[in-house]
Amino acid sequence: MSESAALLTDLYELTMMQGYFAAGKNPRAVFEMFFRRPPFGGAFAVFAGLEPLIESLAALRFTPSDCEYLDSLKLFTREFLDWLAAFRFRADVRAHREGALVFPGEPLLQVAGGLLEAQLVESLVLNTINFQTLVATKAARVWLASGRGDVIEFGLRRAQGPDGALSAARAAYIGGAGATSNVLAGKRFGIPVRGTMAHSWVKAFAGEREAFAAYARSYPDGCVLLIDTIDTLKSGLPHAIETGLALKAEGRPLAGVRLDSGDLLALSRRVRRGLDRAGLADAKIIASNDLDERSIARLTRRKAPIDVWGVGTRLVTGQDDPSLTGVYKLAAYEEAGRLKPVMKRSDSPEKSSLPGEKQVYRVHDRRGAPQADVIALEGETIGAGTRIEAFTPAGGRRVRLEAAFMFPLLAAVMERGEPAQDRPSLAAVRGFARRELERFDPAVLTLARPKSYPVFVSRGLHDLRRELGAFSGSKEGNR
Predict the structure, then answer these.
(1) CA 97, CA 328: separation in Å to the nearest integer?
(2) How far apart are alpha carbons 358 and 98 in whole angstroms?
């Protein structure tokens, strides 16, 4: 991020901070981020954006020009601006491992530190995690719909600005895309870059035959031809076959052809037959044209002979769910030397929050498959042996879980503002996300009518909610 990343916040964060500062109120506080419902009508999300967030938090500074701008707003005192000039982020951050599958209501990330600094970073946390988690989840759904196939992120020109394009390329790679067309993303993140040609290449030559031949001369290894500029079957395919046979005579394979319009099912079948009959069975078919997980699923169900999926607009913009429902809420703050749990109450139950500093445990069966997550109070013992008592978050119905093993999901990623552990490469994050998708029940991952993955609360958290009036009808939750 730029040197002015500290100003990437909503104004009310700064005005609240000044109010706390003026009142001498800066106790230790714990904020948590969670989301309320899975995107795209699914049952899961892929946690993404953690590494860029850590980098931004570690570098957070108010530069002289930042303070000068804030001074020009005539809202802030000189004492507060001087405090900002000396500010450094010194909070502790715990989070899920990036690439993990995560579920509604459970903390994805916790910030524990002074109230002022924890308040300041709310917008930065949500902006970073919400968008990248949304796109990573979309990419995972696309990858699953393709039959775990070869997906390329093609969304640069339709993304929401340069920052959105770069963040989307990174998140899509975590979720399932194997490459991007975005060259800057390739350089910055180490993502493989791939591309073919545009229709303008074909139109810039005297004819399609000449355009294909020129492209093959320039790129004899890895030549992919776009065959729908004039007429896919009457012109593009015959000329691609001609070019492919010329390459084959030189001992080089035609890498593939790309379809970017029309009936992709019918066209891909006829193109596949034509290539195979010509002795070009190794040439792959790449498809694009406003694809998403649902259109890809329909094509794979009908066994369209498509080898590579180029997905752009609908991936990087998160169609048809433009934002993750992630929120950042105060869970506890220090009073008289102890952390006091607090919770948000709401007439809409889904907008309530869970009180206290917490940990999330993933419960596995004997086969090693995740069967439930349990949100517990920090330090609480939640099971005796393999038996776990838990409760549904809404209504408090008691359930019994049998666990072969379980482990905590939230781990320290920053301690006093410094990265707390070696940070994994993006390829390692992507590999972990892939293993997560292989580990979970396919019924949870399916596109149509997915099975909800259970998330429960522990006995201690259930009792604390009752104590704070969560089930009483009282709206006095913070006492």
Answers:
(1) 18
(2) 19
Secondary structure of residue 266 in the 3-state scheme: helix
pTM of the model: 0.95
Secondary structure class of 373 (helix, strand, coil): strand
Q: Output the pLDDT for position 55.
A: 95
Bridge partners, 31 (sequence order): 111, 330
CA-wise closest residue to 198 among 220, 224, 165, 178: 224
3-state helix, strand, coil in the chain (%, to 5): 40, 20, 40
Q: Specify the pairing of strand 398-402 against strand 387-391.
A: antiparallel
Helix (H, G, I), strand (E, B) or coil at 397: coil
- Rounded distance between C-alpha atoms, residue 276 and residue 270, angstroms: 10
Report residue 154 as tokens: 């093609």
Domain extents in the chain: 5-135+322-467, 136-316
Q: How far apart are CA 319 and CA 138, in angstroms?
A: 9
Which of 335, 379, 338, 332 has the alpha carbon at shortest distance from 477?
A: 332
CATH for the stretch 136-316: 3.20.20.70
User: Looking at the DSSP assignment, which residues form a beta bridge with residue 373?
Assistant: 362, 455
Coil/strand/helix, residue 334? strand
Tokens encoding 291: 């694809």
| pLDDT, tens digit, 9 for 90 and up, residues 320-344 | 999 999 999 999 999 999 999 999 8
Sequential DSSP letters for 48-67: --HHHHHHHHHT----HHHH
5-135+322-467 placed in CATH 3.20.140.10: yes
Tell me the C-alpha to C-alpha distance, in Å, between residue 397 and each of 365, 393, 394, 456. 22, 8, 8, 10
Q: Which stretches of 355-425 are DSSP H helices?
A: none
Question: Which amino acid appears at position 290 of this protein?
Answer: D
| Paired tokens of 234 | 């009457």
Question: What pLDDT score does 65 carry?
Answer: 95
The candidate with the shortest Cα–Cα distance to 385, out of 369, 402, 368, is 402
- How far apart (Å, rounded) are the C-alpha atoms in residues 459 and 464? 9
List, for residues 140-193, the tens digit of each pLDDT value: 999 999 999 999 999 999 999 999 999 999 999 999 999 999 999 999 999 999
The position carrying tokens 């952390």 is 339
DSSP secondary structure, 186-211, as one string: HHHH---B-----HHHHHTSSSHHHH
Q: How far is CA 132 from CA 36, 70, 378, in A?
A: 16, 29, 27
Q: Residue 196: what residue type?
A: T
CA–CA separation, 461 vs 353, rounded Å?
Answer: 12
Residues of the chain where predicted confidence (pLDDT) is lower than 70: 1-4, 346-350, 384-385, 470-479
Count CB atoms within 10 A of the CB of residue 78: 9
Return d(Cα 105, Cα 226) in angstroms, integer: 46
Question: Could you give the residue ranges of the DSSP H alpha helices within 222-321?
Answer: 237-249, 264-277, 293-301, 313-316
